[in-house]
Automatic annotation (TrEMBL):
Its cofactor is NAD(+). The gene is galE. This is UDP-glucose 4-epimerase. GO terms for biological process: galactose metabolic process. Residues 5-328 form the NAD(P)-binding domain. Pathway: Carbohydrate metabolism; galactose metabolism. It catalyses: UDP-alpha-D-glucose = UDP-alpha-D-galactose. Homodimer. It holds the Pfam family GDP_Man_Dehyd.
Length: 343
């Protein structure tokens, strides 16, 4: 089987994708600079699959490091690129770090793919590129809106870079996957979302509040134009999301499409509000989440959820987990972290 390079493979979505790749029979090599993850994730992956993925600690913005990686692994035929800084708020304060890390990583990979016979790259993009959509649910044809953060802008620019490089005749393909809101953890509770410091994303903050690490969850606004006033998102189970990556890489390596570039929205198609999500968590786990309504968070989109029909029909992929099961998986992971004394 062709080997798959997973950049950022010890991260949240990367680690879940490595598990699915291994279980689909693909040999994997991970490169990660461990700036927002740790080596223990490799142990967790091995406990799930029984296969320890090859791991290279390294910075993908360093061309020497990446060149050596391809020399050491000449059987790399596909890449899934997760390696990126991804906190919207942080990107507002550290734009140079975000542009340098996210764009130089991609440029280095694209530069090395041709000479090393790599057939394709799956790119981790985001529904952020749609900004505040004119209508929901959002299809891949929805207009790209001006990014409201350097993070979101790096996703838009990266998509444009990939398009320009491939249209210039590069000898490889790309599948661009636009995620909605990835949530939950592997059902084994061996891997999950492990943010450094105070979580920015909703679910880690919610489960840390439920377990008592955080005192109270702040709900950022209930005066939006939505049924209960809180923001609406499309929360997609991270394992469902990971499975889509395996389908995408297989599609590329087996040349199942004539298109050199394909773009897919990966969501459930269901819009859920913050307050609804808190209720789903409480009912699914029996655990209360102390919360209060506070002011809006700058930059928040009011409502965005996917029309996943294109991915359903073309990839033959569909998100199947229930939100209740997904919330239970997030809670089981939080309990495991306490059991391990991690937090
Ligand atoms: C979800 C909802 C908040 C925290 C971002 C990026 C996206 C992707 C996922 C990387 C919003 C509300 C949150 C809290 C809250 N990033 N919220 N209290 O902003 O939709 O998406 O993260 O891949 O690209 O844009 O995710 O989890 O931060 O927020 O009320 O303590 O929860 O207002 O409505 P977001 P989020």
């Amino acid at each position: 089987m062709d080997r798959i390079l997973v950049t950022g493979g010890t991260g949240y979505i990367g680690s879940h994708t490595v598990v699915e790749l291994q279980q689909a029979g693909y040999p994997v090599v991970i490169i990660d600079d461990l700036s927002n993850s740790n080596r223990e994730v490799i142990d967790g992956i091995e406990r799930i699959t029984g296969i320890r993925p090859d791991f290279v600690e390294g910075d993908c913005t360093d061309m020497q490091t990446l060149s050596k990686l391809f020399a050491d692994y000449p059987d790399i035929k596909g890449i899934i690129n997760f390696a990126a800084s991804k906190a919207v708020g942080e990107s507002m304060h550290k734009p140079i770090l975000y542009y340098r890390n996210n764009l130089n990583t991609l440029l280095n990979l694209l530069d090395l793919m041709g000479p090393n016979g790599v057939k394709g790259i799956v790119f981790s993009s985001s529904c952020t590129v749609y900004g505040e959509p004119d209508e929901n649910p959002v299809t891949e044809k929805a207009p790209i809106k001006k990014a409201t953060s350097p993070y979101g802008n790096t996703k838009q620019i990266s998509e444009e870079i990939i398009t320009d490089v491939i249209n210039a005749g590069a000898p490889f393909k790309s599948v661009i996957l636009r995620y909605f809101n990835p949530v939950g953890a592997h059902p084994s509770a061996e891997i999950g979302e492990l943010p450094n410091g105070v979580p920015q994303n909703l679910i880690p903050y919610l489960t840390q509040t439920a377990i008592g690490i955080r005192q109270e969850l702040s709900v950022f606004g209930n005066d939006y134009d939505t049924p209960d006033g809180s923001c609406i998102r499309d929360y997609i189970n991270v394992v469902d999301l990971a499975k889509a990556h395996v389908i995408a890489v297989k599609r590329m390596l087996e040349n199942k499409s004539d298109a050199k570039i394909e773009i897919f929205n990966l969501g459930t198609g269901n819009g859920v509000s913050v307050l609804e999500l808190i209720n789903v968590f409480e009912e699914a786990t029996g655990v209360k989440v102390p919360h209060k309504i506070v002011g809006r968070r700058a930059g928040d989109i009011e409502k965005v959820w996917a029309n996943p029909t294109y991915a359903n029909e073309v990839l033959g992929w569909k998100a199947t987990s229930t939100l209740a099961d997904t919330m239970r998986s997030a809670w089981a992971w939080q309990l495991k972290l306490r059991e391990r004394g991690v937090m």
